[in-house]
């Protein structure tokens, strides 16, 4: 569990990593500590920072994306490192709990543990009750005795003594004033999970010092990571009930940051709060004495705060220019306002990068910033007392991995200038880019459009919402439905006039057709007339979050969605379904969607994702490609928005300014056959590499029958089990954990509700044994070391629809799969026999499925292991294309790909961009990927690949 390394070995490791990142520079290991802002380079993506005290002075504690704790002094020297469990730390707290003058380091870990380390980095003790992630930890004193207090997603908090022994458990159900939106059992979902009427998960725990020397415990509880602010509860230490319970309504959004401060110097600490929801960002000061809440809306401070983006507003109380002030970190911006919060005008200092965390060291008054959100590997130290800090913040270019990424992509761009466009046996599929062009990149797009046949840039626009007679909708529910963000103020003629302007371009357009809040933005008649305005040009109608399901929804599908699909089929239109969470491996298999599954509209529907709050993208990748490979659809898509990275809405550090994670996600998706990309414009210069890779043919766009990296095992998806469906739909609710429910419901796809951010997956979970995923966190670039295990419509037994227009799965795949495919059927809870008469518990039967996946992987030409995403496609009878992508989505790293040649002996292996040639030894080859990078290999065979 534990690894301690000394300073010298860490410096050696840092040098090796720096070298691998192609940015070796001794000066980076010796920061200029006299500067107002300097960077301490580490080998890690640092997610959290704190300060800690030793008898000799204070130092910095960092927690990495992987959960490694490390300590560094302000000169940049590493004191120790401990890898702990290998899972993320949701919270870190430092305090001297044994009175020896040195702080202990406490962490609340996603594996359910509280860990306590000494000031030397050695594990002293750990505490765990169950598997629910611990989320917050602090310390408190009563009668001069110290206690550790910790809590999280099991809806309790715990008092521990300084040796980690449990002293007392406080269940939130005994005092909570928060109430989750109840789940109601219905005919469609009779097993909807119920929960106690009032309880909450623990968002923050902090001790408030009082003027008389005592301390009180502040508990911030929540039931939902997106809706509602939660409440503050104040406890005297070890008491069963709070003496204050206050709802926090002022900020109108969840709390992502909580600091204890003494604003008025009266000896009694107040609470500074920062919100995390994009639409209502603000900070608030809560006074426990008066129970008052003073609120400042960030967008009123500066227009820059009103810009689109998902960020936590983090605060610190600082002395600035002789005045007590509040420092606010908001993504890539810093601003300082008076602590009184009465004068709200401020100047904003905006940098190039956003940061994962901020902390003030009370011993030095220095501000510590964690790594940049774009995959940075530095800890940054900011001294507000020194002149020029603002300019240095504005111009900061983080060393380490950020510099490595930029250098590596520059190298790719240089290689592309000399790369000759590849000619293939067939014309590669066109890739459509939607919402991907901002004003500054229009000239670049024009040049690319002239130079390449693909990618194809669709114009994007907003046609508005129509005021129309909804009484013709055959269900009252949808007659009344409205998207509260829309005005519904346009006539049909006004919409058609907007459409004429939108379609002035040469290719076509993409626009919202409706939303899950209201699919009927415009009448069916208006939609059809809009498609006719296009006059044969491509139309892509985007439908986000159309995922609700009941009888009324089934009626809506038949009344509106499928008739619209019929029209689109005739008028060169596509319906881009941007659904969420487990939709593509659960809800889509409900009977109402059977016409989509059948392949009746294969050339119309495009399965895509609204990746918000997503912790299981490896499942969606397998499900969307499974629909495509099986013939249910002829295209599939991907999307980027700021919140792609937001697996935990309560800590929404989702403001990557360098979209390298998106670049790699798209390369992997397109290499897997995705041809519709819905992209929020972030750093178009960086994304231009993606456009050029497609245009020059370096990034090969395959058809299903050309892909050779599918596992010979597929998962046939049955109508979803109610409990599985319920779990996958409740990703926002944070208070659902129930140990009895978990014990009674081992699932094929598990730990999907809002109680599990960053948590380990179970031994029997598909994500572990098929995708190589160890935790519920993102999964956009999954390993699938034995081949991508497709999730498809059933192909065998009583569940197969042999009359479906899509035909059989093997008829769409490469000929090598004809006689080697094996299917396992599941409803998400258990595995089911082909005749439907036997059910096999996930907790046991997974061993059979796992063994099949491993054994049958030897029938594939190539398999790849390592922290990489990979695809193999056949580009000619004697050529294969191997695509390798750094799998560290928001923690990029120099990755080693272990390539095994199973059924082929390559004649030649060549990196098509760099020109490097390789040879396998005993059927194996190790390939190093650059940080945040990717490589494409042409593999030449002696003879055509055998059927």
Would you kindly provide a written description of the structure presented here, covering whatever features stand out?
With 947 residues, the protein is α+β, with helices and mostly antiparallel strands. It has a domain at 429-460 and 580-940. It is 18% helix and 29% strand. The strands form 12 sheets. A 5-stranded parallel sheet has the order 31-32-33-34-35. The protein starts with 6 loop residues before the first helix and ends in a 7-residue tail after the last strand.
From the structure above, extract its key features.
single chain, 947 residues, alpha+beta, five-stranded parallel beta sheet, five-stranded mixed beta sheet, 18% helix, globular, disordered N terminus
Helices and strands: which structural class? alpha+beta
Roughly how many Å apart are the termini? 47 Å
Rg over alpha carbons: 28 Å
Strand arrangement, major sheet: 31-32-33-34-35
Point out poorly predicted stretches. 1-28
Average pLDDT taken over every residue: 92
Number of strands: 50
Q: What amount of the residues lies in strands? A: 25-35%
In this structure, how is the largest beta sheet organized? 5 strands, parallel
Helix content: 10-25%
**Number of H/I helices:** 17
Q: Based on CA inertia axes, which overall geometry fits? A: globular
Offer a concise description of the structure.
By secondary structure, this protein is an alpha+beta fold.
């Amino acid at each position: 569990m534990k690894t301690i390394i000394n300073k010298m070995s860490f410096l050696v490791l840092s040098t090796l990593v720096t070298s691998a990142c192609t940015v070796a520079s001794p000066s980076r290991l010796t920061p200029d500590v006299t500067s107002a802002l300097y960077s301490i380079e580490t080998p890690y993506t640092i997610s959290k920072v704190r300060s800690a005290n030793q008898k000799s002075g204070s130092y910095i504690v960092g927690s990495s994306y992987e959960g490694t704790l490390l300590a560094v002094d302000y000169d940049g020297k590493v004191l120790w490192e401990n890898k702990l469990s290998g899972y993320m730390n949701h919270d870190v707290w430092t305090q001297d709990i044994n009175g020896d003058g040195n702080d202990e380091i406490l962490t609340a870990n996603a594996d359910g543990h509280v860990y306590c380390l000494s000031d030397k980095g050695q594990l002293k003790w750990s505490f765990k009750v169950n598997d629910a992630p611990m989320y917050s930890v602090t310390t408190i004193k009563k009668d001069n005795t110290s206690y550790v207090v910790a809590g999280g997603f099991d809806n309790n908090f715990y008092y521990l003594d300084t040796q980690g022994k449990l002293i007392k458990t406080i269940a939130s159900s005994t005092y909570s004033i928060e109430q989750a939106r109840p789940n109601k059992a219905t005919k469609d979902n009779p097993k909807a999970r119920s929960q106690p009427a009032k309880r909450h998960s623990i968002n923050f725990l902090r001790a408030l010092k009082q003027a008389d020397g005592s301390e009180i415990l502040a508990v911030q509880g929540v039931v939902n990571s997106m809706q509602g602010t939660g409440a503050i509860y104040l406890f005297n230490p070890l008491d069963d009930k709070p003496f204050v319970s206050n709802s926090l309504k002022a900020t109108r959004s969840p709390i992502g940051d909580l600091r204890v401060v003494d604003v008025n110097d009266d000896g009694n600490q107040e609470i500074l709060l920062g919100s995390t929801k994009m639409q209502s960002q603000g900070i608030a000061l809560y006074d426990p004495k008066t129970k008052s809440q003073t609120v400042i809306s960030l967008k009123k401070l500066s227009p820059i705060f009103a810009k689109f983006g998902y960020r936590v507003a983090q605060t610190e109380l600082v002395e600035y220019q002789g005045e007590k002030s509040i420092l606010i970190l908001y993504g890539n911006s810093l601003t300082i306002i008076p602590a009184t919060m009465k004068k709200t005008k401020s100047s904003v200092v905006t940098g190039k990068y956003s940061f994962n965390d901020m902390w003030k060291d009370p011993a030095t008054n220095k501000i510590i910033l964690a790594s940049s959100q774009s995959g940075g590997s530095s800890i940054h130290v900011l001294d507000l007392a020194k002149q020029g800090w603002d300019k240095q913040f504005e111009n900061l270019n983080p060393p380490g991995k950020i510099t490595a990424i930029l250098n590596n992509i520059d190298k790719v761009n240089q290689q592309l200038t000399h790369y000759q466009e590849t000619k293939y046996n067939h014309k590669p599929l066109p890739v459509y880019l939607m919402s991907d062009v901002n004003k500054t990149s229009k000239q670049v797009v024009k040049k690319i459009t002239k130079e390449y046949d693909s990618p194809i840039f669709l114009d994007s626009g907003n046609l508005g919402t129509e005021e129309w007679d909804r009484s013709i909708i055959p269900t009252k529910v949808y007659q009344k439905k409205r998207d509260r963000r829309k005005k519904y103020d346009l006539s049909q003629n006004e919409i058609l006039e907007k459409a004429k302007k939108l379609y002035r371009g040469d290719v076509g357009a993409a626009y919202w057709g409706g939303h899950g809040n209201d699919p009927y933005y415009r009448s069916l008649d208006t939609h059809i007339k809009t498609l006719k305005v296009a006059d044969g040009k491509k139309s892509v109608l985007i439908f986000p979050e159309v995922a609700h399901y009941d009888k009324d929804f089934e009626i809506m599908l038949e009344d509106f969605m499928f008739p619209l699909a019929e029209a689109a089929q005739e008028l060169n239109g596509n319906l881009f379904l941007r659904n969420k969470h487990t939709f593509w491996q659960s809800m889509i298999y409900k009977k109402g969607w059977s016409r989509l599954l059948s392949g009746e509209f294969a050339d119309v529907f495009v399965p895509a994702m609204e990746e918000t709050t997503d912790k299981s993208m490896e499942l969606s990748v397998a499900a969307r490609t499974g629909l495509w490979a099986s013939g249910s659809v002829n295209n599939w898509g991907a999307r980027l928005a700021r919140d792609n990275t937001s697996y935990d809405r309560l800590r929404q550090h989702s403001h990557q300014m360098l979209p390298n994670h998106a670049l790699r996600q798209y390369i992997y998706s397109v290499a897997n056959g995705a041809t519709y990309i819905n992209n929020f414009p972030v750093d178009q210069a960086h994304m231009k590499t993606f456009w050029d890779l497609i245009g020059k043919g370096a990034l090969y766009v395959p058809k299903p029958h050309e892909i050779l990296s599918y596992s010979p095992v597929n998962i046939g998806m049955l109508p979803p089990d109610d409990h599985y469906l319920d779990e996958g739909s409740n990703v926002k609710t944070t208070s659902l954990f129930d140990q009895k429910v978990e014990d009674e419901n081992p699932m094929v796809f598990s730990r999907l509700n809002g109680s599990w951010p960053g948590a380990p997956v179970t031994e029997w979970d598909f994500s572990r044994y098929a995708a190589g995923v160890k935790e519920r966190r993102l999964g956009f670039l999954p390993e699938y070391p034995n081949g991508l295990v497709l999730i498809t419509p059933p192909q065998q037994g009583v569940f197969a629809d042999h009359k479906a227009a899509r035909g059989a799965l093997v008829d769409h795949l490469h000929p090598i799969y004809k006689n080697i495919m094996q299917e396992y059927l599941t409803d998400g809870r258990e595995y089911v026999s082909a005749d439907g008469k036997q059910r096999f518990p996930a907790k046991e039967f997974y061993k059979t499925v796992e063994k099949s996946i491993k054994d049958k992987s030897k029938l594939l030409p190539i398999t790849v292991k390592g922290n990489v995403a990979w695809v193999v496609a056949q580009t000619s009878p004697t050529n294969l294309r191997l695509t390798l992508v750094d799998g560290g989505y928001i923690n990029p790293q120099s990755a080693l790909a272990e390539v095994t040649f199973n059924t082929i002996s390559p004649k030649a292996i060549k990196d098509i961009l760099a020109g490097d040639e390789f040879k396998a030894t005993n059927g194996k080859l190790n390939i190093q990927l650059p940080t945040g990078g990717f490589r494409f290999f042409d593999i030449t065979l002696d003879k055509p690949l055998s059927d």
